[in-house]
Amino acid sequence: MNRILIVFFISAILNLNFSLGPDIEFDNVKYNYGKVKVGSLINHTFNITNNGDQPLVLLKVVPSCGCSVASFTKEPIKSGGKGEITVKFNSKYKPVGLNIKTFTVFSNSKNNPHTIYLKGELL
Questions:
Q1: What pTM value is reported for the model?
Q2: Do the domain assignments include residue 51?
Q3: Taking a C-beta distance cutoff of 8 angstroms, is the pair 61, 44 a contact?
Q4: Tens of pLDDT along 73-88?
Q5: What is the 8-class DSSP label of residue 7?
Q6: Sequence-separated contacts (24+) of 109-114 with Cβ below 8 Å
Q7: Do the domain assignments include residue 62?
Q8: In which domain, by residue range, is 80 found?
């Protein structure tokens, strides 16, 4: 009887679906735009890959302040597929010096949410 149970459990374990689900990977999570004059418009596109085995869906990208906006791939990204998140920062009325903007990325990926960054110096 014990052998039958052991065989049953081993069979059940081997037949489990070990799905990874969607898994977002960023080419880079930080972009340094260098030194720019106050009032400059900063644009950058972050490239992403779905390293999971199920479609990745980007739900929303939330900027840290009203001076920034984001757009992103709306359709599901297949396993191994690529997508983009484009961010824009308007430095008008911002103080001179180091400036860091964050964007929180919400998706159906594991380890959700993720944060991406724009960094630079305003002159």
A1: 0.81
A2: yes
A3: no
A4: 999 999 999 999 999 9
A5: H
A6: 109/21, 109/22, 109/23, 109/24, 109/52, 109/56, 110/20, 110/21, 110/22, 110/23, 110/52, 114/24, 114/26, 114/29
A7: yes
A8: 20-122
